[in-house]
Amino acid sequence: MQRLVILAAIVGFGLAAPATADVTVKQTTTGKGIGAGTYQGTTYIKGMKMRTDLTLDNTVRSTIFDVENQKMYIFDSKKKEADVWDMAAFGSEIGKSVDSSQMHASLKPNGQTKQIAGKTANGYDLEVSMPATMGGANGMKMLVTLTGPTWIVKGAPGTADYIRFYKAAVEKGWIFSDPRAAKSQPGQAKAMAEMFNQLALAGGIPYEQNMEIKMSGDGPMAAMMAKMGGMTMTSTVQTVETGDIAADLFEPPAGYKLNQKK
Questions:
Q1: In 48-121, which ranges are continuous DSSP H helix?
Q2: Residue 138 φ then ψ, to 5°
């Protein structure tokens, strides 16, 4: 489940036109690593709220990111209950295990272009490295790196709202993965958040992304974690559409039990 929500964040890729419009992005993600596979996903953005739905084995796994109210909801179609996270408190807690001052991030154009879903995408090379400790502030020191080419379409439908959401979320210190996974791998969670920040700064929507996640550190335990933490993913957009999305899509379904998490 933790890896699935990480994938959900990635398939929800994140100022062209000033007009506002709800955005729906449909994409396919294929990954290699623990818990990875091939997933069909849909991302919905409405103002400062985003929802990602992933379909796997006839189960839809959903995550709602409510940036304005600092809440994250995680649930699936097989259970009538949702986990609720206070992201203001969680962001403060995870910050104790990550040294953002030592972070390195770059997104550089590589001069290539590619046709994706009927659009011309420009190629960029992404690299993010984030030092972190696992198991609390005094835990094992690790370095998480995200690298790979990204193909960005500028001026695509919904670009302004897409970028606006991610910029606001990053400014509030949000992460885009399951908080349970982020507790055990805070460096990876924060590195991914910075990745979305870099993509938003590029001024477009990533239509394809090839990403490799690596972990490194000193000692035998770190070596084992590095082996377990390796992961590669490719996400490709099929369609991007604009049009009104019902507000209740960004809330857990009526009647669901809400489980408060810390």
A1: 87-94
A2: -105, 20
State the pairing for strand pair 81-86/71-76.
Answer: antiparallel
CA–CA distances in Å: residue 206 to residues 10, 18, 117, 235: 10, 19, 12, 9
pTM score = 0.79
CATH of 2-261, one of 2.60.130.10, 2.50.20.10, 3.30.360.10, 3.55.30.10: 2.50.20.10
Question: Edge to edge, what strands does the sheet with 205-216 contain?
Answer: 104-116, 119-134, 140-153, 205-216, 231-242, 23-32, 38-46, 49-56, 59-66, 71-76, 81-86, 257-261
Instruction: At 209, list the tokens.
Output: 């992304």
- Give CA–CA dist 12/192, Å, rounded: 12
* Domain edges within the chain: 2-261
Average the pLDDT over each of 9-23, 39-53, 89-103, 119-133 and give the range with the smallest value: 9-23
The predicted model gives 122-138 an average pLDDT of 78
Residue partners of 115: CB distance under 8 A and separation at least 6 = 121
The Cα–Cα gap between 95 and 79 comes to: 31
Assign 11 a pLDDT band (cuts: 50, 70, 90). very low
pLDDT in tens, 235-261: 999 999 999 999 999 999 999 999 998
> CA angle, corner 30, sides to 28 and 34, nearest 5?
140
**pLDDT over threshold 70, residue 120:** yes
Q: Are 8 and 55 in contact (CB under 8 A)?
A: no
Query: Tokens 């910029």 — which residue?
Result: 167
The pLDDT score that the predictor gives to residue 197 is 80
